[in-house]
Amino acid sequence: MNLYLGLDFGTSGARAVVIDSNFQVKAHTQYVWENSQENKFPHVWQMALFNLISDIPQEMRGDIRAIAIDGTSATVLLCDGDGKPVSEALLYNDSRGVAMMDKLRSIAPGNHPVISTTSSLAKLLWLIENISLSNKSYYFLHQADWLGFLLHGKLGVSDYNNVLKLGYDVGNLSYPDWLTDFVNSEVGKNIHLPEVVTPGAIVGNVTPEVVNSLGLSPECVVCGGTTDSIAAFIASGANTPGEAVTSLGSTLVLKLLSRTRIDDAKYGIYSHRLGDLWLVGGASNTGGAVLRHFFTDAELSSLSSQIDPNAESGLDYYPLLQKGDRFPINDPELLPRLAPKPENSVQFLHGLLEGIAKIELRGYKLLQALSAATLTNVYTAGGGAKNPTFTAIRGRYLQVPMKKAVYTDAAYGSAVLASRQFIVQ
Asked: CA–CA separation, 133 vs 121, rounded Å?
């Protein structure tokens, strides 16, 4: 039997899904971060990676033919020539790159997607100025890149989804001259940008060490990975222009499949390549992290059941935990709007859910106004997909059919990617 393994490293933990050639799930394992700080440490990622694979039944591990990994977009780290991290990991929402915005604007073309406080390139500039480096070679990697390296041993390989926010030109499938000129002239040749492959393309076989420690077949290959939101899109079943996927995880991520590429840093909009089509969208800092700040999972379930999704809450929130958003308003100084706060918890949650739904509506309206495609239906992935009240509220605002994703686990999408059978129409 040929099996395919997808690994997803997200904001709350890591997951693994094994599928067969008919896309049927054969095994599922997970590793939950003990606290929000664990996600910052590469050694924890490594422990999660090996635990996830070890937890797959031994009789299945030997039949795994290919592996693909997704990670959070623009979560990066700097490594030495042996692949050992020399910096802390800068997570997807780390905004210390705000200090590099002037320099970033002087390097990148106007309105480029990398002109963002949380872009991979902004973080690279910050690392260059704040980490003490010798004359040795260093490799700038994304989360999925480094985790893949632990399996195939080839340092400095990424995919064209992860390197988008580094400045890679996904249209021409090459690094643009402005980026390579900067790296060669100002950074120095001792920092290497990743070699880029197509998501799902074979990078190499698992190493003998991995074969011996994890019981994988020496014929098992590791493929180019992707980002968590792209993997969630693949898992959803959406494959036609006009179909969209909203990922309701810790953050809110919108992806609309289109025949037209749109990149507009002014609004935090960027396009990922998906075969010959484009996934146009953006990510807001609103989402499940805000909800969990105020409520436990049990409270969310109980209180949601008391909300009438067809009624207005009467509240006008822009739910954020701290100032700053990326999309549909790209403003690092944008203040949260969470007042007035009613004493009634049901009403307060109602207002929060409506606030997130309004941001989602504003995002899709913006994408359509820029002619990405006409929204036909929305699939939902992530933990928020399990809340029927939230789905009904969002449907009231979006006014298009709301579909439950075929699978809501991004790890499933990565497994499909590993099978190299993903097709868009």
From this structure: 18
pTM for this model (two decimals): 0.84
Q: Which two tokens stand for residue 91?
A: 């997570």
Angle (CA) 268-271-274 rounded to 5° is 155
Tally Cβ neighbours within 10 Å of residue 212.
10
Whole-number Å distance between alpha carbons of 304 and 327:
26
Are the beta carbons of 194 and 157 closer than 8 angstroms? Answer: yes
Query: Which residues does 276 contact at the CB level (< 8 Å), separation at least 6?
Result: 424
Q: For 225-275, write each residue's pLDDT tens digit.
A: 999 888 988 998 898 999 999 988 889 989 999 999 998 878 888 899 988
Is there a contact between 256 and 269 (Cβ–Cβ < 8 Å)? no
Q: Which of 24-28, 97-101, 245-249 has the lowest mean pLDDT?
A: 245-249
Strand ordering across the sheet containing 191-192: 76-80, 138-142, 191-192
Neighbours of 425 (CB within 10 A): 9
Neighbouring C-alpha atoms within 13 Å toward the C-beta of 371: 2
The residue ranges of DSSP E strands in 33-150, in sequence order, are 64-71, 76-80, 138-142
Contact 382, 288 (CB under 8 A): yes
Q: Are 16 and 79 in contact (CB under 8 A)?
A: no
User: Are 254 and 381 contacting, i.e. CB atoms less than 8 angstroms apart?
Assistant: no
Q: Where would I find the H helices in 253-333?
A: 288-294, 297-304
| Distance in angstroms (rounded) separating the CA atoms of residues 364 and 255 | 9
3-state secondary structure of 176: coil
Strand partners, 205: 221
Question: For residues 374 and 362, what is the distance between their CA atoms, to the nearest angstrom?
Answer: 14
| Neighbouring residues of 231: CB distance < 8 A, sequence distance ≥ 6 | 6, 8, 70, 410, 411, 412, 413, 414, 417
